[in-house]
Design brief:
The protein is an alpha/beta fold. The protein folds into four domains: about 200 residues, Rossmann fold (3-Layer(aba) Sandwich), CATH 3.40.50; about 170 residues, Rossmann fold, CATH 3.40.50; about 50 residues; about 240 residues, Rhodopsin 7-helix transmembrane proteins (Rhopdopsin 7-helix transmembrane proteins, Up-down Bundle), CATH 1.20.1070. About 40% of the residues lie in helices and about 15% in strands. The strands form ten sheets. The chain has an eight-stranded mixed sheet with strand order 10-9-11-12-13-18-19-20, with helices on both faces. A hairpin with a 5-residue loop joins strand 18 and strand 19.
Length: about 800
Amino acid sequence: MLGSPEFPLLSKKGDVTIGGTFSIHSQISKPPLAFRDTPEPLMCSGLNFRELRFAETMIFAIEEINNSSYLLPNISVGYKIFDSCGSTLPSTHAAMGLMNGQERTVRKTCSSQSSVHAIIGASESSSTIVMLQLFVFHFATCACLSNRNEYPSFFRTIPSDYYQSRALAKLVKHFDWTWVGTVRSDNDYGNSGMATFIAAAIQEGVCIEYSEAISRTDSSEHIARVVQVIRTGSARVLVAFLAQSEMDILLEEVLNQNLTGLQWVGSESWVTAGYFASKRYSGILTGTLGFSIRRTKITGLQEFLLQVNPTQDPQNNLLREFWEATFGCKFQSSLHGETQCTGSERLQEINNPFTDVSQLRISNNVYKAVYAVAYAMHNMLNCGQNGEVVNQSCIWKEHFESKQVVKHLQGVNFTLQSGERVYFDVNGDPAAVYELVNWQRNEAGDIVIVGIGSYNASQQNGKQLTIRWTKRRPQSVCSESCLPGFRQAVIKGKPICCFSCVACAAGEISNSSNSAECSRCPLEYWPNEDHSQCVPKVIEFLSYEETMGALLTSFSLFGASLTLVVSCVFFRFRHTPLVKASNSELSFLLLFSLTLCFLCSLTFLGQPTKWSCMLRHTSFGIAFALCMSCILAKTSAVVIAFKARRPANTVPQCSHLLQRTSVLSCTLLQALVCLLWLNLAPPFPYKNAAHATERIILECDLGSTIGFWAVLGYIGLLAALCFILAFPARKLPDNFNEAKFITFSMLIFCAVWIAFIPAYVSSPGKFTVAVEIFAMLASSFGLLFCIFAPKCYILLLKPERNTKKYMMGRNQSESI
């Protein structure tokens, strides 16, 4: 059965008239256009039970107001309801019919009005936009309608898509769906809503793989192409910002191509439509998420709907069409076998979108819109403020215009019987509060729409979205998440959600998944094995327990022990000519200093402390200075003994005094340098984290490099003097020429310490200490063997040479 959008389908006279436009039919005829004939009137078909329920809800609210004793108490409210057919052109016809009505009503105390005073708007944004003179809309969500410059008389009882789109973006981000596809209605509702969603999604770090648009007038080839794009895409989440008519077309093609496995995220226009929850689409839409208007109950509405019957107005074609579509019968049956409608059929036995009041969401918006207009008129006619009766009757105003209602509509603020508060902001929008719904299967296998959360735009950011859902959720990402220890690397030419995972570099970590970059660990920390957290570096120093430390300790103790053995040998043969000729006093002092040189290397091992750092360098400096002073004195004695022209009995006395003085003064000078070093800038323990990777080298900072090199340089100076004095005396005519051995020992000593300098500077970490100890031991062993080995050889193995005569012999071929 067909209806025309040019004439009201339902109407009733009253002192004031509220108009309404609903998409009562979903299809529109396309009459042929010719320039020779008058165009045929537009005809609509395909009854929409849900939209008819909206229209009946408007009538129900008006009847409640007419029966109210506190709201418009002496004013009757009438209505005119037109069919917009869900299309722009019929909406224009309906708007013209509402604004140019010719019907008049007469009351005893009031003059009549011909036009509609307020209109409850169409169910789609695009249909709404053509009605610039309309007031309150129940299902027009386009954010563009909040522009007061273009639509100064626009109000609505449903939140703007600006908030819904942002809520959908936060929902997608909440579930970590960073790779989604989108499809929208190719009209103001879909284009505006999707544009806001994409902008908000990008801010949330969500990438859009594809964005397609469809219209109910598109060809089947275009719809098939869109579904093929969805099928071939890698995104597993599809955000569908569609009106019901486009959603119906899309789902049919999805069924044809057997496309499953998608997580649907829907807009409020279809996400609570029971029609889509039927078994036909259940395999596709199970698990659907989306935001809807809050569900509520309207007391008495179900009873009112069940009383609808063609017998109420036998001439009303819409009621007859509804009855025939509901019960599958005909009032005027022309075909054999068709069931005859009697009007006595019972709606109580029918369960369809018209009688189903379990999901009263948009119906409640219609209900609120009617009451908002009634309260505005109530205030305008001085009946009272927001329903509070001041006078027994309202003060009627002749020929009041619709724009007067607008002024009072902005200030309405009332509470419904359900407890819901109704008001409008400066843009004519209500509070943006949504219910998050999920399509789940019950025990019987049917799809039920369950509330699992909410979104309240008035809350502060971070508290707007609340979700009560613990079920496993699908993944929809362009690239798998990067584990801790890796960072995202953008792939050239791809969106930011498509990336490769690159391991963090040495010294860097990432302690969360999908880190954009790795962070460097603090100086005293190092990444663990998987680079997911910083752990304290291992503190390392040259200890006695490790292999190198144990070897150096062994050599040090061996050297000291060997020196003590040599001392014992010398003490055993202290009265022999060889020991006397070697200046036994200086020899024992030299052996004592060599023992100290071997033992002071032990202070360089173990964990550095304040006192050990000061001790190791001062003991090293003084011990080696004492050693060099003794050798210098011995060399001087040899040179003096052979060069002197004085009587023999005067040389030793002068020589011993000179030796003691030189040893004491040279050693005291080194001790003074060490004392100044310790007072001005002493060595101290230092954690060297810069020269290592996963380890901290605990070492002794020199405090003053000048002090260190002064000590080392002074030892080098004494060694150089020894060499200078000993080198000319190496060829003196004596069977036992000690200067020759001192020269050789100084060559070894200087070679060791000259090689020490570059090795010390270039060695990393604890090896610096090992190089220093090695130089000390090598030079000490060199002195011990070069100076004392030949003497021990004679004392222990060649006692026949240990005579004064042999030692004083000249020009003999054998020499040691």
